[in-house]
Design brief:
With 691 residues, the protein is mainly alpha-helical. The protein has 4 domains: 199 residues, no CATH class; 57 residues, no CATH class; 159 residues, Orthogonal Bundle (Neurolysin, domain 3), CATH 1.10.1370.10; 195 residues, Collagenase (Catalytic Domain). It contains 26 helices and 7 strands. Helix 13 packs across helix 20 and helix 17 packs across helix 23. The radius of gyration is 25 Å and the shape is globular.
């Protein structure tokens, strides 16, 4: 990857912490991050030492160089905190991530830097430059840069505390995996390949983990309600009770920050620079979602409950641990669709190839496998080319292992800056599948143990559920946003550096492509026979998949309202268990299960904080975007090129609202979302089904 100053890059250990030994040694990682922070401080010192009139060239350029170093250190410390093989490195990465966050907090309260940027003459500057400066100055004001020194010192201390609590909260989830035991009878209903990966011990019992490849099939396919309940409670208590105490401290700290800054609540502070604008606007949007989904969710629940009672006379309620199982049973009966039946058509390797092929055609780019080193030998690396020219790199870390983060996410690796550095991003996922192939030099030290714990036996095809395939498309949407949006002039607006409540639009837009029959049949081939997934099966799968959308919206309302409520009130005296249960019971028809402590492993409370509404809000925008594509030629129509140019390539160089208008020619409308939400009843003929 090219850099503007190769000597400076070499002096700071290169662009990648793992190339400097940071993935294998805590000391090497600390040195690499330290060099980045030193370069950050040097750029700021040069900025403040400048004399004469302030301009983007003599001031913003140095500020952006400092941001670039901070982004680089923070991104890779965050990644290694999530994926490093050795616990000592993960522990050090957490400390380094905190050190970077503190440097960022100090910068946000640096009045001299703020005044230097505010004094710049922007006459003749590009619209992107003006937007970057405006958002930067707004961020400074929201951080409290205009407060007196004592107040800024207090805010710095509060941010330091909040950062430490957030990192500890996330680490407890990451490393809090549990196991449960199952008898042979309790494994009834689970797929054959799943059973092959989980042989019984000498006493006939099978150990299952709460990692997604183990947990999700149990919740969907296991006939045993007792097993489903044990798995549900184990999964939702992974970080309990430790995170209960941490969360209460974090909420109190955030509220104190908001109070010092003159905001009623953290939720108002956290939405002040977002598309939504305020907590009140969020609540208005949620009220609209609640109204739109209420009747559909009621009808779905009635159908499921009636169906369950016919099969289990005397059953009065369906609890949350059995919801997914009953949905699966209903879909088999109502739509003649067994979700296990399509798994043989979705082996991991074919899905990966299919997602890459789809993205390459849609965005008119090329992916080439690379031998570049990564943080672990199980990571696949790809270079991205556009018109024969390299434009970025991405890393796929797709299977679980000991100590690795157990969720599904996309993360920046290197911030791209046009003419200087190409963008890099990573997917960190936990799909089933055989041990990943090693590409390039191993990231572990010579002779060290490979950490593939939790990865299935060699030769396992890694058969995915269709929901897993949707997740893959979703995360790849983030990745393409990071790469194609990473060609901007400024690091501070590169990649997915948009408003936080626009960031889920590209991911949720791309996942809609999974619904296209021609696209699916291009890669959905039976892993043993090579047979293409039949059109009739796809039709049934789409009908079955549409059933439950209103319930999905109600689930989003629950998570969204919980994250908002926890940050939109005085946390003193807050009863987390009571609040969580009462809110659940007000929004969900499925019986509450005592012992559920989901808030303790709700990882988005640290990242999105009060703003989990992003998923539902961006779903409305994403569906309106997708409606602009020609359904008869999704990958070939001109909407793909327009979308790439007006949305993805912009990175964060325009307000999200402007990007919506540039692509749609208007603000988003609710109609596409409403059509999507009601498709199950209007197109599926549910009212006439005998189930």
């Amino acid at each position: 990857m090219p850099a503007e100053n190769p000597a400076a890059v070499a002096a700071t250990g290169g662009l990648h912490a793992w190339e400097a030994g940071g993935a294998a040694s805590a000391e090497a990682l600390a040195a690499w991050v330290g060099a980045r922070l030193a370069a950050h401080e040097a750029s700021l010192a040069a900025l403040l030492a400048g004399e004469g009139p302030r301009t983007p060239e003599n001031s913003l350029r140095l500020f952006d160089a400092a941001i670039e170093q901070l982004n680089l250190a923070g991104a890779q410390a965050g990644i290694l905190n999530s994926v490093a093989a050795e616990k000592t490195v993960r522990d050090q990465a957490q400390l380094e991530a905190q050190r970077v966050a503190l440097a960022g907090s100090a910068l946000s309260l640096n009045r001299q830097v703020y005044e230097a940027l505010a004094a710049m003459d922007l006459e003749g500057s590009s619209a992107a430059t003006k937007h970057f400066v405006q958002r930067t100055l707004l961020g400074y004001r929201l951080a409290g840069v205009d407060k007196d020194q004592a107040t800024r010192d207090r805010l710095q201390a509060l941010h330091e505390k909040a950062t430490g609590l957030s990192l500890e909260f996330s680490r407890n989830i990451q490393e809090g995996g549990k196991t449960i035991e199952a008898t042979p009878a309790e494994l009834d209903g689970l797929p054959e390949d799943y059973l092959a990966r989980h042989p019984a011990d000498a006493e006939g019992r099978t150990t299952l983990s709460t990692d997604p490849p183990d947990m999700q099939p149990v919740m969907t396919f296991a006939t045993s309600a007792a097993l489903r309940e044990r798995m549900f409670l184990a999964y939702n208590t992974r970080a309990y009770p430790a995170n209960k105490t941490i969360l209460k401290q974090l909420l109190a700290t955030r509220q104190e920050i908001a109070t010092v800054l003159g905001f009623r609540s953290w939720a108002d502070l956290a939405t002040a620079d977002q598309m939504m604008g305020s907590a009140a606007n969020v609540r208005a949007f949620l009220a609209k979602l609640a109204e739109a989904s209420l009747e559909g969710a009621r009808r779905e629940h009635e159908l499921i409950l009636e169906f369950a009672r016919r099969r289990q006379p005397g059953l009065t309620v369906v609890d949350i641990a059995s919801r997914a199982w009953w949905y699966e049973q209903f879909r088999r009966s109502a739509f003649d669709f067994d979700s296990q039946s399509v798994r043989p058509y979705f082996p991991y390797a074919q899905v990966e190839a299919g997602v890459l092929q789809t993205a390459a055609r849609l965005f008119k780019v090329e992916f080439r496998r690379s031998t570049a080193p990564a943080w672990h030998p199980g990571v696949s690396v790809f270079e991205v080319f556009d018109g024969g020219q390299p434009v970025g790199r991405f890393y796929l870390d797709m299977h679980p292992r000991e100590g690795k983060d157990k969720w599904f996410s996309a993360a920046p690796v290197v911030t791209g800056v046009r003419g200087r550095t190409l963008p890099e991003a990573a997917l960190i996922c936990n799909f089933p599948g055989g041990p990943p192939q090693r590409h390039g030099p191993a990231a572990t030290t010579p002779g060290s143990k490979d950490h593939f714990l939790g990865t299935p036996v060699a030769g396992d095809p890694g058969l995915l559920q269709y929901s897993d395939v949707v997740t893959f498309f979703h995360e790849f949407g983030h990745l393409m946003h990071a790469i194609l949006g990473g060609q901007t002039e400024w690091a501070g607006i590169s990649g997915f550096a948009t408003e936080g409540d626009f960031i889920e639009v590209p991911s949720q837009m791309l996942e809609e492509f999974f619904r296209d029959e021609k696209l699916l049949q291009a890669f959905a081939k039976h892993y043993q026979t090579g047979e293409t997934l039949p059109s009739e099966t796809i039709k049934k799968m789409k009908l079955a998949g549409a059933f439950g959308r209103a319930d999905w919206v109600r689930s989003q309302l629950y998570y969204t309202t919980l994250s908002l409520d926890l940050h939109d009130q005085d946390p003193a005296g807050l009863d987390l268990d009571l609040t969580t249960r009462q809110l659940y019971q007000s929004l969900q028809p499925w019986a509450w299960l005592e012992g559920n402590r989901m808030y303790a492993s709700f990882g988005h409370l640290t990242g999105y904080s009060s703003n989990y509404y992003t998923y539902a809000f961006d779903k409305v925008i994403a569906l309106d975007f997708f409606a602009q594509f020609d359904p008869s030629d999704l990958l070939g129509c001109d909407a793909g090129s327009r979308y790439r140019k007006t949305v993805l390539e912009q990175g964060g160089s325009k307000p999200g609202r402007q990007m919506v208008r540039d692509f749609l020619g208007r603000d988003e409308e609710f109609q596409a979302f409403s059509n999507w939400l009601n498709e199950e009843f209007e197109g599926g003929g549910l009212d006439t089904l005998a189930v």
